[in-house]
């Protein structure tokens, strides 16, 4: 990890520890105030607890032009991104995505879409619905490795993170406490409960919290839709296509809507926010990820609406290209933030 980023974050954390004005703001400050000195692993842990709500910055009396020049949200955001890049496997891909995320996401979607169209052209089709454009066996052969790779990559990355922050044996109570925090995203409500002022200094709102929740629950519904379809296919011998009132559709359609709306909402919030209070170097990667995830939701909904039209094969190729890109790039995008933050919350529960 970059020493200069850790040193600057440590300097600011030591000042915050002496001040303690923001003690009740979020999970970061109780964890910060438990320490008297900060090792590199402590700074990495604090950085991954931070949700960049920025309330502490606007409340701070030591920001510029004060000589202390504190900007804790920015310092922790830079350490956080550097930790993802340093622990990622393979590492070079993560660094590239954070600086060229938009171009990489677009190239991946188009490239994989062309691949799916080429597979269809050579005759890999047969069946009803989407399988008329691309066979079930072809989909499984492509997506099974694409699902295993990010899980393997994240397992390596999170193991490195856990060792860095001094993690110990995990108990069920630690996991349930962390999952409770994730489900409510209470840190985005800030300590006073009025929400955070991510977009404007004087405007407290829950908008970012709700946008995060829409994305998270939309993604989980889409994942549950895919899992239920897999069970229907292999366990109950009920292959797709499925009607509107089936479990996969009842989960997938609301999930796609939530995912699309949440990503659009998050993009609008980021455009209104101050880049200098976050990691400006990761701006391209952040937007590339939001655009990719939102496009997965949009393309899935369009495919559902126009699945019976002549455009279905092209729409299917584009949607599958987006989904495949999302899975393969997950360990190197901001999607990894969810896994790291959960690990950081589990570690925080161990030390509470």
UniProtKB/TrEMBL annotation:
| Membrane-spanning residues | 103-123, 129-151, 214-236, 251-271, 283-306, 312-332
Q: Does the keyword Magnesium apply?
A: no
Task: Please indicate which superkingdom the organism of origin belongs to.
Answer: Bacteria
Q: What is this protein called?
A: Citrate/tricarballylate utilization protein
User: What NCBIfam families does the record tag this protein with?
Assistant: CitB
- This chain's source organism reads Litoreibacter janthinus
Q: Which UniProt keywords apply?
A: Membrane, Transmembrane, Transmembrane helix
**Which SUPFAM superfamilies does this UniProt record tie to the protein?**
4Fe-4S ferredoxins, Respiratory nitrate reductase 1 gamma chain
Keyword RNA-binding in annotation = no
């Amino acid at each position: 990890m970059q020493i200069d980023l850790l040193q600057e974050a440590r300097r600011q954390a030591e000042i915050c520890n002496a001040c303690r004005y923001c003690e009740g703001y979020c999970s970061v400050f109780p964890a910060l105030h438990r320490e008297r000195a900060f090792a590199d692993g402590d700074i990495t842990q604090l950085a991954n607890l931070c949700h960049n709500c920025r309330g502490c910055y606007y409340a701070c009396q030591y920001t510029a032009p004060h000589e202390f020049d504190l900007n804790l949200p920015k310092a922790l955001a830079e350490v956080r991104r550097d930790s993802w890049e340093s622990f990622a496997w393979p590492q070079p891909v993560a660094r590239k995505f954070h600086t060229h995320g938009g171009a990489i996401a677009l190239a991946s979607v188009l490239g994989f879409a062309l691949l799916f169209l080429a597979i269809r052209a050579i005759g890999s089709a047969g069946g009803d619905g989407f399988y008329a454009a691309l066979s079930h066996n072809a989909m499984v052969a492509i997506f099974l490795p694409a699902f295993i790779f990010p899980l393997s990559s994240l397992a390596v990355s999170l193991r490195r993170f856990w060792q860095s922050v001094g993690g110990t044996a995990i108990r069920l109570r630690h996991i349930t406490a962390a999952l409770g925090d994730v489900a409510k995203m209470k840190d985005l409500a800030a300590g006073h409960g009025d929400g955070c002022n991510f977009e404007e200094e004087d405007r407290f709102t829950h908008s970012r919290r709700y946008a995060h929740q829409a994305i998270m629950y939309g993604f989980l519904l889409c994942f549950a839709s895919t899992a239920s379809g897999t069970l229907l296919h292999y366990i109950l011998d009920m292959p797709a296509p499925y009607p509107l009132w089936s479990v996969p559709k009842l989960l997938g359609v609301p999930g796609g809507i939530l995912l699309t709306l949440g990503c659009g909402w998050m993009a609008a919030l980021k455009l209104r926010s101050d880049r200098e209070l976050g990691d400006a170097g990761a701006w391209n990667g952040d937007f590339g990820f939001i655009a990719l995830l939102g496009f997965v939701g949009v393309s899935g909904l369009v495919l559902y609406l126009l699945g019976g039209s002549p455009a279905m094969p092209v729409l299917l190729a584009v949607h599958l290209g987006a989904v495949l890109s999302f899975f393969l790039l997950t360990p190197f995008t901001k999607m990894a933030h969810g896994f790291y933050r959960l690990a950081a919350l589990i570690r925080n529960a161990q030390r509470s």
